[in-house]
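**User:**
Everyone, produce one record:

**Assistant:**
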Amino acid sequence: MEIEYYYASYSAYAYLGNAELHAVARRTGATIKYIPMDLRAVMPAAGSQSFTERSQAHKDYFFGREMIRWAEHRGLEMMDRIPTHHGNDITLSNCLLIAADKAGADMELLTNTILYAHWVQDANLDNEADLKDICKRAGLDGNELLALAKTSEIKEIYKANTSEAIKRHVFGSPTYFVGGDMFYGQDRLHMVERALLKPYKGKWPRN
């Protein structure tokens, strides 16, 4: 079985669920298909508000209290605030992930390293020096991967990933698919594991 993993390089809840996702894959023998997407295009296409349009109470809960509780629950380090450079462009970092996957890199390690760098070390994911440092810590050649990330081939994959996410009604990161059934949010990973072992009744989309 395969888990299709739609996520973005700067996603708080992708970070919170990344280790558990891979633990689920190991327990069930599932493979993971990594699908970095432009979350800032996917969310409005699904009718969701942008981060800047949300109420302060919403931000304080989902990117404050809830986030910190989940970090404690998962045994993870995490800042108790939005990273300094969170609003910067995410194209290069997402394309870096795609390039690394194409090059056969250890995607579990790189994905965790980039998310950890942003949410624990306040890394700027739109800064090439920070991205090269992230690659180095993941045992990868940052210069080579950044060059690949900037190619039209990788940008087209990124565009296709985003279009496919919109077509499949994805509206947040992380989102997982198992046998076509969609599970939104890292707090659904126990259900992802169950679906790998025994699919749920019904289908998605409903019509």
Q: What stands out?
A: The chain has one domain: 2-197. Residues 36 and 97 are 7 Å apart (CA to CA).
